[in-house]
Specification:
It is built from eleven helices and 15 strands. By secondary structure, the chain is an alpha/beta fold. Bound molecules: 5-S-methyl-1-O-phosphono-5-thio-D-ribulose. GO terms for molecular function: S-methyl-5-thioribose-1-phosphate isomerase activity; translation initiation factor activity.
């Protein structure tokens, strides 16, 4: 089933804060509800955020009655602003919002706009699944039978509409009959690796071993890792933004000559920008000082301790062996090669 979908004039999504303990679908009938789900990471992962932004703008068209088309457009613009304010780093969120908003603003009839906005959102969701499969196909060529792949955060079907980016590459290699083992990092503070990646891979019968984030050094030093594949929230001219901790993994991989691959769709590229121009989301102190799943109120640090909690970090492109996209695998020099791939078109 899909991570996020449209049903009965509402956006439905798997609540990722509860997994693996509980599998629950949330129904968002208003943009406020969807914005809240995005902020508290009930839906997360750059491509899933792209679909969330797209469905969110479509949802704004259905939220209430409008006396005319101008009133609808004003309402939808405000709702789009709210969606855009939820999370700043993953560029895909803005891509999804803007694409559907453009459809809304170019329409001239309320019913027609509603229909076309929803069709556009559904198209974006379909494109995500298609491009993940393509990324999987291209990326799987980099994996050999018997490889152990280390991955970080969750880049699977839960982080996308379906199939996944970095996990999609692993999935695709396994579908080709290759024996692949995965080492999943826990990914503190919200444990997307231990809670989501391990759950997803085990559901598919893919061999996965969980480690804490501070075990990356020892597994590389012992030669237990053949390749690293991670996803991305934004790829700029000089760096990859991804879940906090990715940079450390990249440096350790470089030290041990382990190839470090990043799998992401073309809509994750923001090639006009450089690393200094991107906002890194800082999240609540509570994520570090409390046990945050179910036992939310158990202190695991002194309540008054000072906390720094950035959600993402910046990995300079010099650490990246290749970028896996739905258009193919891009190798350095990126300055020269990425623009050629971007010219091949958007998300397909
Ligand atoms: C295919 S998902 C790629 C990235 O979005 C993923 O690695 C990541 O960093 C997600 O962060 P999150 O804070 O869980 O949204």
């Amino acid at each position: 089933m899909r991570t996020i979908y449209w049903e009965d004039n509402a956006v439905k999504l798997i609540d990722q804060t509860l997994l693996p303990d509980e599998f629950k679908i949330i129904t968002c009938r208003t943009v406020d509800e969807l914005a809240d789900a995005i902020k508290r990471l009930a839906v997360r992962g750059a491509p899933a955020l792209e679909a969330s932004g797209a469905y969110g703008v479509a949802l704004a068209c259905y939220e209430r009655d409008f006396k005319d088309v101008d009133e609808l457009k004003e309402h939808v613009k405000k709702r789009a602003e709210l969606l855009a304010s939820t999370r700043p780093t993953a560029v895909n969120l803005f891509y999804g919002i803007d694409r559907v908003l453009e459809v809304v603003l170019s329409g001239s009839d309320v019913e027609e706009i509603r229909k076309k906005a929803l069709e556009e959102a559904e198209r974006i969701a379909e494109e995500d699944v298609r491009r993940n499969k393509l990324m999987g196909k291209y990326g799987a060529e980099l994996l050999e039978d018997g490889d152990t792949v280390l991955t970080y955060c969750n880049t699977g079907r839960l982080a996308t509409v379906d199939y996944g980016t970095a996990l999609g590459v692993i999935r695709s290699a396994v579908e080709q009959g290759k024996k692949i083992k995965v080492i999943a990092c826990e990914t503190r503070p919200l444990n997307q690796g231990s809670r989501l990646t391990c759950w997803e891979l085990m559901q598919d019968g893919i061999d996965v071993t969980l480690i804490t984030d501070n075990m990356v050094g020892i597994v590389m030093q012992r030669g237990m890792v053949d390749k690293v594949i991670v996803g991305a929230d934004r790829i700029v001219r000089d760096a990859v933004f991804n879940k906090i901790g990715t940079y450390t993994v990249a440096i350790v991989a470089k030290e041990h000559n382990v190839p470090f691959y990043v799998a992401a769709p073309i809509t994750t590229f923001d090639w006009e920008k450089t690393m200094d121009e991107v906002i890194i989301e800082e999240r609540s102190k509570d994520e570090l000082i409390y046990c945050h799943i179910k036992c939310r109120k158990t202190l695991i640090a002194p309540k008054d301790v000072k906390v720094f909690n950035p959600a993402f970090d910046v990995t300079p492109l010099k650490y990246v062996t290749a970028l896996i996209t739905e258009k193919g695998v891009i190798y350095p020099p990126y300055e020269e090669n990425v623009p050629k791939f971007l010219k091949l078109g958007g998300s397909e």
